[in-house]
Design a protein that fits this description.
The chain has 100 residues and is an alpha+beta fold. The chain has two domains: 4-54, no CATH class; 62-99, no CATH class. It has four helices and four strands. The protein has helices spanning 4-14, 21-38, 40-47, 49-54; strands at residues 62-64, 74-79, 84-89, 97-99.
Length: 100
């Protein structure tokens, strides 16, 4: 974290009042654009709450060189002509794995 003494000159230049309305508009637009790029969660909260409730999170599977059963609900399955070994779990979806 930068000390406050180093941030003070930067803050004064960014938020200094200017006489030209165009430069003030340009500075405000640049600050808001960079903030939305850094923290997309700020802009996503405004109207995307209803959309995210409709679509659930789809969990993928881990790809490992050596798969193993992690609990008693995990099952080993061979698919695609025996090329891949899958671990599928009924109890915990985080345990899904594929060897490859």
């Amino acid at each position: 974290m930068l000390p406050l003494l180093l941030l003070l000159p930067l803050r004064q230049t960014l938020f200094a009042p200017s006489s030209a309305p165009f430069s003030r508009l340009f500075t405000t637009r640049a600050i808001s654009t960079s903030t939305s790029l850094w923290r997309p969660s700020i802009t996503a909260r405004t109207g995307a709450g209803a959309v995210s409730a409709v679509f659930g999170q789809t969990r993928g599977m881990k790809v490992r060189s050596s798969v193993k059963k992690l609990c008693d609900g995990c099952k080993s399955v061979r698919r695609k002509g025996g090329k891949y070994v899958y671990i599928i779990c009924d109890k915990n979806p985080k345990h899904k794995q594929r060897q490859g």
